[in-house]
## 1
Amino acid sequence: SSEAESRWRAAAGLAQVRKVEAVQALGSALSDPEPFVRCAAAQSLGEIARQASEAAVRVAAGQAVLEAAAAPEAGTRAAAADAVAAWKDNAPLEPVLALIRDADATVRAAAARALGLAGSQALPVVSPALQQALEDTDAEVRRMAANALAWCRDTSSCGALRKRLSDPAGTVRAAALRALARLDSRGEVSAVLPLLEDRDIAVRVEAIRLLRLRGTRDCIPALAALKDDPAPVGEATLGALAEAASEDIARRYTPWPMRLLPRRRP
């Protein structure tokens, strides 16, 4: 409606007003009935808190987050987590550490995202919460937890992420592969090779991408078997990705002088 759009514009516009009054207005907007208004309010609130020079503004923002995190409506609690995600460094993590155990899966997923974006400086408390979220009953929470561990650069989570390679949800398997690739983890190759035949194309793509970065000579035959796979991946095909991965792995085992020679044309 036009009224909801006006509230959305107002919430978005307050991002540049770094005053306590603006924070208080945005705190109220975190409980707006419209999700897109709550989203704008959370983004603006986090941006103000992140850039504010006055301690009073940051204190007011923290209070707004605490109140929203304790709200009876799940949408408002999720908005509190979104505000922490937008706040990033120096955001109050206590509310989202509680929200990651919320009864509502949407709230838990938002809390996992917030911990990933705001919690890299507090890994001793954030990492256990996110690794526990990898075992959540909801697939979206597990997927977001895998993403969050990668954003935090939490290398201690590689073992927990490796377990998610057999997750029943393809979205989680793919997220775990992306996270392991980003964390520069070693030792996944044997666990990743079977995923080249996964029923979910997104999982097969992420498996190829990880092997392109970490694969050994032993991976080349399995990748070569996919070179004629016509499944579309953006403007390329799965087969083209697999072939490029094989070439990159082979080049890693080629002596440096040979790498400088032009590639032979087919």
Note: The CA atoms of residues 97 and 129 lie 7 Å apart.
## 2
Amino acid sequence: MTIFLTTGPYRYQKATGYGTQSRGKLNDKRSKRENNEESCDHFSVEANCSKCGFHGICERGSARISPWLSFALKTQRELQIDAPINLVQVLGAHNSYNNRASGYGDLDDCHWPHRADDVCIAFANQEFSFTDQLNMGMRNMEIDLWKCFNKIRMSHGNQNFLLGCVPWDKEFEDGMKEISDWTKKHENQNEILEIFFEDHTTREEDSSINQVIEEYFGDRVFTPSDLKQRFGDKWPNTRQLREMKRTIIFLDGNNHSARFLHSHFWSKSYTVKHFDADVKNCSFKGNSKDSVRIYSDSTVYGPVYNGIRSKGTIMDFKKYLLCGVGVLGADQINAELMKTAVFTWAEGEPKQAINESSCVMLSRDKRWYVRDCNEEHYYACVSKQQKNHWSLSAGVGKYSSPLCGEGMEFSVPKNGYQHQQLSQAAQGKTVWLNFTPFIPLLVH
């Protein structure tokens, strides 16, 4: 059996064996793409797509998640408004450009979730477009850059071209335009977005990369110069970036000295297989002042390579968030996976629109509920000196009369790790949360 592997839209050729594709079949598939003949596949159904095309994949901008999920994820982002950006927990998409909606992995035949022993083809790391990944709540987008065929392209290439950059891989400029269009929408203008380049270009391409970023993002980019001159090389928080109207951050693992590119701020990066996410054993992560990144790999190249087996995949965001992981790079983003990122609101909560008089309680199930402010519950208390040290008040009371002890203050967990610490301290008791200061950020 002869196998040739590449990673563009027409990626998989076999002389013999399973999944053989002929040129005629490729032409049929292109025709179906043009005529939007196929019904939605299971990912697209879960995303409640309004329109599907080739292979049943959501057309760009047509994936939707529930209003509850969107609100819960936004809540968790806004809770971190005063945390330095390098310590914010952010949901990300591994190889976000390498998605079927953009033509990558046209011949993929694996079913999701893959099994570690599957013998199939899955070249694409993602199902949905940049636009839909962002709409689902992704805020860290990973893009591989290669200079090939006289263009900077988004490609899963390598130097030996065993997985090659090909002429039909999307150009870097196309990806930046799509992301820029999303950020310019009114409802997205305050969202902090990290774009991480796994950069295989050389310094000779710095000027070209700068030019594209300048064209599509301009002065909305938070630059290395801003970091040094305004903040003394210490990362600002979300509130400060919004005040500056610089909400786009470009990160690069290649240490280029380009005008817009920061070195990535996580000190350690693990594959899923190499990270123990047992929340009972993660204090060193949550208490660390360094950010940690976890990433997965769902690609399968028949019998040649199986990313699930070698690197693992993220199937539950929450256990990593509770463990204090800073940046998560997941494959095959979909609505059901995004639900696993929620550790705050119980499903369906809040049942009615909240306002500044709403009172929020952590229940016995470790989720949030809006309750009558005259009910009596314990209070969530955090140390004024150690923000990861949580305890309960000695007694219960109404929301308006917090009873935290000396050196403690009434508060609300700002991230997954703090939520886990409070939940452990609560030991099944019901607890008032000081969510009031954050309500204006969520009420328009």
Note: The radius of gyration is 23 Å.
